[in-house]
Give the backbone structure.
Amino acid sequence: MPHSHQHGSCEHEALEIDVDPLEMGIQYSLYEKIDFNNLEVLNSDDEGRNVFKPFEQRLDFEKYVQSDADQELLFNIPFTGNIKLKAIRIIGPDDFSHPKKVKLFKNRPKMTFDDVNVKADQEYELERDLTGSIEYSTKVVTFNSVHHLSLYFPENFGEEQTRLYYIGLRGEFSEAHHHGVTICTYESSPNVSDHKNSLFDSVNHQIH
């Protein structure tokens, strides 16, 4: 059943449901659209890709991401196109190293810990989730055109280091069309050498 949480400035709705792995596997497939060559996680020596995997492999705890110097973790997640993010799921350990909060920032590439004090586009107080059964719904209007997503985990439940096993991203994907726009722009631009006189005539006409 849905249960709503309100924590100061953090308000969200989390749904705890019995999951159908096949259906969820289809819905939580946005990890396939991550640009893994440019994915980065700050304050960890582990590969950021360790927590992005098929939904049916979410309980594979052999691979994980763990913070280094303190509790903080920051993921910079570029996509190969635009996504509409609808929800996330977070799996951590059954102990105090499970993250306690996450802040979402859209379209802010290469964020560092110096940048995380700005107002987040959305944030959640997390519950300890060992199976991925809790879904945190996003403000879809806010996250309807995202090419880069940053996830900042500022703290856990009391351990010196934070550990994550799985980050699930549910939503829709659309291909980027930057190249098509660029080609159209070049094709519609006149060649100055071919139209020199007419261009000057047009400019003079507009000035006078």
About this structure: The mean pLDDT is 84. The CA atoms of residues 16 and 134 lie 4 Å apart.
